[in-house]
Fold each of these.
Amino acid sequence: MSPSATNSTVNCNSSVNAQLASLRGQSFMSTAQLTPGELTGLLAKAQEFKATYSDPATKATAPKPLTNEICSMIFQKRSTRTRISSEVGMHLLGGKALFLSSDDIQLGVNETLKDTALVLSRFNSIILARVYGHKDIEELSSLATVPVINALSDKFHPLQMLADYLTVKEHFGKLEGLTFAWVGDGNNVLHDYMLAAPKVGANIQIATPVGYEPDQDVVEETMRLAKIAGTKVVMTTDPIEAVKGANVVATDTWISMGQEEESKKRLRDFAGYQVTNKMLENAADDHIFLHCLPRHHDEVDDEVFYGDRSVVFDEAENRMWTVMAVYASLLGKF
């Protein structure tokens, strides 16, 4: 790398680090708390980490800013991508991650959640938790004396949003002016998608069956943000209307963990929502397809899922680079 390129990289890093300085010592519960600058800064930092740590020429000598930092990862719900990306990401930055399943720790069961939060804070630099109820992660954050990361709750999934938006930015080179479409359940991932779209200057078009709409408080906040940003929000029950002209088409599982008993009813209610090439004929010519996984055939057919427009495995990889950006930002170490 030439000296001028090195100086340019340093200046870029300094600028991004300044954008993220306000996150130091904070917890990360949802996209709602991020300013537009913090959101774009996290994506830029993730891109920096990806360029450095995925390149064999620089990976071996890459800095380890989180050396001696420890993260306890509490998983009430099983996971593949969240666990692996969070654990490997901490390792790449020089830190260590400790996995705690529901067999190891049960929030508020064997001891009060307050006691657990205070004890974990003595041993760790940061806590990451994947929980059922959002109130659990909020309470953990309010009681812990170290930053807490929401790795999924029934209300929000901000780490997934970051990975998805990074994937879109990589593909199109921008986020501003794009149109996102969501087809399926009005769930936790969608909530963060909605809150992020106006913050990056993007439009969002959402199709959900009746009774599966996103939470009203998230809808209202998204509408407020979109009015300020001058972006568009469309809410419909028609998947064709939602994908019309969209650059990005995303869906998710229709049956999340804990909803298995509702599976037959949900499959009936979501009839007509499977993403197919026929549906995507209504999207923009340059559209891409996202799914945060795990995927079931009812949600998207094989032709789309494994097709040229699908970026789901880039999306899965980006879970690691984005959580690394969150770790570094909350700990203030780059």
Amino acid sequence: MGSVVEAYIDFLYRALGSKEASRVLEIEPGRIVLRGSARELFTHPHVVLWHRFVVEELPKHVSRVVLLLPCSSIKPYSLSPTHRIAMSRLSRRGVLERVSVLVLSEPMVLVPIELDVYYPFANYDLPPRALDDESRRTMVMILARALERMRERVCTIVATLPRAHLAVFREACAIARVRDRVREVPYGALAFRSVALAADLAAEAVANAR
């Protein structure tokens, strides 16, 4: 099947051509080059291209257990304290390779943590409060289509998300008919604790899925 990183890079080269794909992949992680309104970013050609990958390709590369985390203002995501806790917890439990860690993001919708150092995921800035109604509807529908295509592979989705992200996720789950596979961990003031608990639940789900 190959890794999601290999799949993404191959997808970029096929979609953009060698010269443009090479150019964007050389953009330094953390250098913000995509800014604007939600509508501008959701309709940016490279973001729209990623949305196609999310629906058509990403479902082929998820594990039976998914850990869903919120995005971070820190780019790449894996440098943020909460995401580091999640990855460390999964590693200590010996299940890091068996859990798909996905980040729920506007405007990217879903991003595998393995891709967080690549353009455009390491190079955008859009605060969640900037999400307008039309962009939110787009996000829900793309997420729903991706979740629907994951149904055959995924048995458990452990999600810990702030309120706005959680509402989007719940709507998409209802459309995709995957609510029965979701375990929610409240994401409150103690975000570190929430993320640690979610990672532990994902590890338990791996054990139960054997």
Amino acid sequence: MIISLRISKIKKIVLALSVLFFLSALPFSHKFLVENSSNKEPIFHGDTTKQRVAFGCNVFWGEEYIPKMLEVLESHNVHITFFIGGTWAKKNPDMLKLIASKGHEIANHSYSHPHPNNLNKEKNKEEIQKAEDIINEITQVKTKLYAPPYGEYNNTVINAAEELGYPLMMWTVDTVDWKRPPPSVIKNRVMKKLSNGALILMHPTEPTVQALPELIEEILAQGYNIEPISDIL
């Protein structure tokens, strides 16, 4: 009888401890599920109901080509979105001021160009925030869009951006201009995939600048407007 009571008491203790362990794990489990199991997606295109497209130019290098790029854009009365890297901004404040002074949208491309998928949420937030701070210090512009380096993203990266108020941006058309293909290849890559709301990824390279005049003219000739990314979302 005594042994039976002891066994019953032990079972109750084990059950109580199990319940406590389960309850204590709930917040972690919920957080893990929210951050890692929901299939969150970035933005790959703008509003598809209107005939508008946008260029997004990622800048961590290539400053020698930016003045000419700005001339081409200004001569066609076109404004685009420049995704600026924080360390680049720190080294090239006058160039960044010039971009902003021409009326182009300034957006966020991280501070040091890490691989976002290798970082936890807090490190991703730190990268975004540091870039935002240095860009704001130079231009007095608060960035509103975030394009992660290497086009990397997962739920952790998206959550980090969202917690800082940023939609995470991808692209519809990749010019792959960082490989420096001939200007005609860049133009054809864009025109083959042009559609309402298309987001066109490019970088400041020599063939990109050479391709831009004809590319812009062909896009406009097909009835599209070219606007900053924020304006077509």
Amino acid sequence: MRVLIAILVFIGAGVYWLILDGSTPKNADYEFPLAQMRGLIDADNGPLPTALNVEIISTDEAPLLAAHAGFHFKPFQLAMTSVQVKGGNGDGGGDIIIGGAMDKTLYEPSTQSDNATFSDAGYRRMLDAMLASDATLITHEHIDHIGGIVRAPDPAALAPHLMLSAPQIDAMAEFAADDGLAAAYKNLAPADLSAPRLLAPGVAVAPTPGHSPGSQVFLIRLDNGEEYLLIGDIVWAMKNVEKAWGRPRLLQYMFFKEDRALVQRQVRALNVLSAAEPALILLPSHDKDWIDALIAAEKLGENFQ
């Protein structure tokens, strides 16, 4: 009997550790460099962006427990997205694109549910916007953020618009088609994104390694005063921020490696930041319900313009 109890306790502890525990540190000892990023934006006199638009390239569905540790079996609606920062210079230029999603060849084998969708028109709009952009960046170098860039139909045309760090460029070959990574990408010079940097009026980027070595956040200030913090995959659901509760460890062993301790510190810091600055709009890459709500509230434009 004691052996059986010991086995059950061992199994229970394993289930808790792998699936149920999403706890974050009690104290927010991680600090996003918002003051420095705002200082960079404040010091620039250029015209601020006029709008922030989102393109939902594909959607999927997974149990909420994949995003939020615990026995949460209701569906979580996932969006694979790209964001367009509309430049404020008035001549149709100055746009910044953030995020590459996946192309259809990567999307199809990755779907988790029968309800998954892919927008050919959305992918085409994203590529067209990238080709017209002053710069195209990503929040980090995972397949659903860089795959649509790696497998773009015209790498030679797209490459001059890319602004990727060394870890992000190093990851590209993993997602290339069978004929290998395009020569235009092999020859990309890495951008120095190792410290907070102003990309354009109203747009700053800062490194936040944790979910991946090349992870980064973007602070965007529009001409109407609205501020947005694009947080990539630090969390997948806004519920993670609201509850200061992260993903299950099991995901790290199944799909990706991340510095969990650092990410959990970042999640707690986002929880504190959200409470301290409720006007700051946090934008995770994949929470479709949250993105849809921001579109409905006219905080995000639907589709690229």
